[in-house]
Design a protein that fits this description.
Arc Repressor Mutant, subunit A; DNA-binding; alpha+beta; 2 domains; Jelly Rolls; homodimer; 4-stranded antiparallel beta sheet; globular
Chain lengths: ~250, ~250
DNA sequence: AAGTTTGTTTGATCTGAATCAAAGACCAGA
DNA sequence: TCTGGTCTTTGATTCAGATCAAACAAACTT
């Protein structure tokens, strides 16, 4: 167990990006990561190809939002994963990805070439350990979301989504607890509906309802203010400390 | 990469159980697993406690079915994971499990004491690798199920569940493809409804409808025969090779 | 500044699944 | 063989969310 220490190779944008990949790597290991690292930015709507002849990579999200989508032949779609800043994209040691990965907003990735990354994994056991941890977190998030999709009402679904995003933002910006949370919603109504298993009309109606009831405040279509997180969480039907991606 | 070879320590019940935990372990490693192994059987309905002072363990399912359940305060429940034979229960290296784990039918587990199992993981890198693989499979299953919960109709949901179980049974009993598949449904209508995000009445109605349409045949309440898997899979709205737990 | 595109809101109506209710079926045990 | 319990089916009704439809708002053309 190597204690956390600030490193010269910490990501210049945010200080935590490489640490998001492995918080236990020492400077030497991080500098190896550094060597195989590059950045890419994708405009909103663009598909992110994680494989391809000499452009295979895994990545962590630096800014923006990407989403994993599954589609049925008749066009019904379900977003099965929202990747927010610090989330990890790609599966080292696995061949094809079975989902569409697409930028939902403009998204910047901190990428690592797959081959050398996988080689690094072999010689760095705690990197695999860390990947297992990340995957278990994703599994928890997916299962929590199964409860949302299977058993929650439209209003609860919206509140669940908003509280996840609000909490992430609050953490990122270190908003003190029980202060109002302010953020830009990184999803269109349509994307929200695909994540929640609803139609966009229902999403719009429930957003209006939450606004009317003072649970959220809207400035324009996208900017949201949550005056009281407790109330929003209660609307989501979660117990106090719940929350998929927290 | 160690080639598969039959080992004296392969599970006496089914030849594959330890292999289900790690197919790459050599005889020496398997015999270490052997030393920390024991079996437990739980009657239907009983909670399976994976932690507890000196009874911490991880396990793989040998026979029967266990389920992971999430519950809201008001009692709404969602089964977030069905553990069929050869599935792995418990999370090495992680503290609490956040779901209820319960036997759905009588279930026999092949258990490994947690502490020594985790120690073995440290000295056996491909065990972690294997656990990562297992976890990624579970993640795929969970995400496939998100599509089922979010976007499929009641009839498609039922067909999806039946085709998963039928495929598992077909594999286990090596039923040749495009032969009829025969199996005992290991779930009550109530458990089915909790897995599918429906009510048990809807489950019952749709089962009757599928029967009337000749997609499935029922003998008694629980024994099911699928004369044509292709048709069942088509009803599930999946493309040919889909299927969560395959 | 008018016209187009893209995203959003709101209204009217319809429908699939939930809910409420009751009756069968299949047991284990006396 | 009856009897109470658990599980399942079926029927009648209701309702949350889908669908169909139209208008609105902001951002880009040119």
């Amino acid at each position: 167990m190597v204690a956390y220490k600030k490193s010269s190779v910490a990501c210049s944008e945010c200080q935590i990006r490489n640490r998001a990949v492995c918080s236990q790597c020492d400077d030497d290991e991080l500098s190896k990561l550094e060597k195989i690292k590059f950045y890419r930015t994708y405009p909103a709507g663009q598909t992110i190809a994680l494989t391809g002849q000499d452009m295979d990579f895994v990545a962590s999200v630096v800014t923006g939002v990407a989403s994993l989508t599954q589609t049925m032949e008749d066009g019904r779609t379900q977003i099965v994963g929202l990747m927010l800043p610090s989330d990890f994209l790609g599966r080292p040691g696995r061949q094809g990805v079975m989902y569409d990965v697409a930028a939902t907003t403009e998204v910047t990735l901190c990428c690592f070439h797959r081959k050398p990354f996988e080689e690094l994994m072999v010689t760095t056991p705690h990197l695999i350990q860390r990947l297992l941890e990340i995957t278990l977190d994703e599994l928890d998030a997916a299962r929590e979301w199964m409860l949302v999709l299977g058993r929650k009402t439209a209003r609860e679904k919206i509140a669940s989504l908003l509280s996840i995003i609000a909490r992430r933002y609050a953490k990122l910006h270190k908003t003190p607890p029980n202060k109002a949370v302010d953020f830009d919603l990184p999803l269109t109504r349509d994307a929200m509906s695909d994540y929640l298993g609803l139609t966009l009309e229902t999403v719009s109606r429930q957003m209006s309802a939450l606004k009317k009831d003072g649970i959220i405040e809207l400035e324009g279509k996208r900017h949201i203010r949550v005056p009281d997180m407790e109330r929003l969480i209660a609307e989501a039907g979660d117990d106090a400390d719940g929350g998929v991606l927290s």
